[in-house]
Every structure is written in structure tokens, then in C-alpha cells.
From TrEMBL:
SUPFAM superfamilies: RmlC-like cupins
Source organism superkingdom: Bacteria
Family classification: Belongs to the KduI family.
Catalytic activity field: 5-dehydro-4-deoxy-D-glucuronate = 3-deoxy-D-glycero-2,5-hexodiulosonate
Annotated protein name in UniProt: 4-deoxy-L-threo-5-hexosulose-uronate ketol-isomerase
Amino acid sequence: MEIRYAAHPTDVKSYDTTRLRQEFLIEKLFVQDELTLTYSHVDRFIVGGAFPVSKPVKLEADTHTIGAATFLERREIGIINIGGRGTITVDGTTYDMEPKDCLYVGLGAQDVVFASADASQSAKFYLNSTPAHKTYPTVKAAISEASPNNLGALTTNNERTIYRYIHTNGIQSCQLVMGMTLLKPGSNWNTMPCHTHNRRSEVYLYFDMAADGNVFHLMGEPQETRHLVVRNEQAILSPSWSIHSGVGTTSYTFIWGMGGENQIFEDMDAVAPQDLK
């Protein structure tokens, strides 16, 4: 399990491209037949990927890092399938996972195993995990069951639909909030106008992107912006003081996950485009 430490915004102003990428970009999430995890000290987020191809992959704890015998001893997890059809088995109960299905697994679950239905079209399970203090039931939701919210317009290149899976009026959790944003054809900006939220951190996963495509992800304080070039199936760690917005050279989809003090989706501090520097 890779470990990332928290960074002060004053220090980040002096980072070059290499240092920015080392601190905030997760470049490799999906390794065949392996579980890949990154532990962030920002809100104790764990971000990862399970990519079962020729064999199942088990969710296992790095006991030294998290100080627990099992991964979910003191945690909850949200999982979204961004690949082909697969299954997730939680303590003996198997859930069929179609593309873009979400599964929430609560505190205390013992065994979580990922598998693909077809090795030639393998499932890819994207994981967000945060600390938990209460057990909520395991719940699956398809994208058709998520709460949609239409935002933006083609005239501003940001017409999109936000699908909320794990949130206050959907799948219940202790602190994790998770969903997916699909951009309309012709739109390439996400989360613009942008915002920060001092009470929560956020993680973005960019996917469904062409092999030669890039997203230029904006980060940093509103008056001290920086950018990271992100490619398909790479993730960004976004601390509470940072904006998080991006523009793509090709079409793309992204998954957002949040952890922190509250679960109110609208709790954010808006930043007008003309105030960015």
C-alpha cells in the first residue's frame, strides 16, 4: 500500500510538475489479478483498484498501515465497476456487477472478493474507503437507480449529468459520498465554475478516455492554480483547500468520492471563473 502525506498549500506553491504528480496523482490503479491501494493522510482516504482477470482478487488489509486485522474492521468502502461484467462476494453473498454499478460495503464485513464474468472483458473495480464508526448495510445500485442532477450547458462546454450513489438521500454511509459524472457530447469541462469545500476532501478518477486523450486537471488555491495532465484510469487526490476541475482533449467520464466532516453535497465554497488566477 502506497502512502501519501498531507501537503500545506503554501508549500505546494513551490512544487514543480514532478513533485505535484508525486503528491496528488495516482498513475497506476489497475494491475492484472492484483489489488492496488493508496493510503492518503488527507481524511484517511484509501483509493484503489481491483482487476481480476485470470483469478479472483481479495480485499486484504495492510495491517501495518491501517492497524487492523481486516480491511473493513474500522472502515467502509464504495466500489464502482468501470470494466466488464463481474461479481463482488461479501461474506458469502454474491452481487452481480454490471458496468457502472456501485456497491457499498459497511463497517465490519470480513471477506470481500472481486471476480470477472469473462476474462476477455474483465471487470475493473474502483475503490474509495474512509473510516467508519457505525455499520450500514451492504447495498448495490445501478446507475439507473442513482439520483441524477443535470448541470451546465453546451454554450459553456460543461453540460453534464451527476449521478449520486452514496449520499444522504441514497445509499447510507458514515461519511463516504460517491458518484459519477457523465458529460454530454460536445462538452469537455467538468466542475466549472469550480469550488473548494473546507470540510471535505475529494478524489477524482478519470476514465472512458481515448488512449491518446488527456484531461488537464486544475488544482491549487483559487488564486494559485496549478494543473496536472491526467490520462485514462488515473486518479487525483484533492485536499479541502484545492479547487478540482478539468478539461479534456477527448470525451471522458469521472467518478468522485468525498470524505470529511459532513455529507451535504451542496456544502461548497464557490469560486467564480473571473476570480481564478
